[in-house]
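Q: Here's a chain of 264 amino acids. Please give me its 3D structure as tokens.
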Amino acid sequence: MKTRIITGVIAAGLFIPFVVYGNLPFTLLVYVIAAVGFYELLRMKHMSMASIPGILGLLAVFALLMPKEWEQQVLDATGYGKLEIMLIISILLLVYSVLVKNQFTFDDVAFVMMGTIYVGLGFYYLIATRDAGLAYIIFALLIVWTTDSGAYFTGRQFGKRKLWPEISPNKTIEGFVGGIVIAVVAAVIMQLVAPFDVAWWLLIVVTVVSSVFGQMGDLVESAIKRHYDVKDSGKILPGHGGILDRFDSLLFVLPLLNLLHFVS
């Protein structure tokens, strides 16, 4: 626990200034974080980043991460947007599977492309949400962090019924509900201090749905790790695991907030 707390404080101390400043430094940091996350995903399946599929997949991640103004510049210069780039990379991966005589299979192609979407789009919305305004990214981080903490402490204190033992044996229904409640309390406090221009009922609904989706993002990452028989996605954050272990909830919450048009 001590290592976990120290790592969390140091990581937050390094990450938060970039969040506050935003702009190009934040975008470049997200590119680095996403690259590490994609590396962790490939590593689970025993694929190398220093391979043709790894390089093509990383290019696809970088393409998906492009903010709107960067994509427009690429579109103006080449005539290709994100969709076309993803299609080209998909075709190249399929051709590669033929050239290596199915040592790299169709299933592997699907894994790489799904991995680029999971990582690339998730982290793209980290950039897009920050570009929409600092308050939105603070709200997203607040919901994720309070849900995580609320679920952990509520589960330890009151947890009796397992939520999904086949996927994450330590999570409980009581912790799941407790995380939602604590997130709502945090959202209410933020609304009182720095209000969004939304109705109270809408804020509560968005918070509850976001808290649920955040916990589902955590469970999805747990399911992936269990499927590939790994304890943590990586070791870059002592006591926490890897990048995907720390950002799994945000990869679900950030797209959701944009799809609900809460972020504008």
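Q: Can you summarize the key feature?
A: The radius of gyration is 19 Å.
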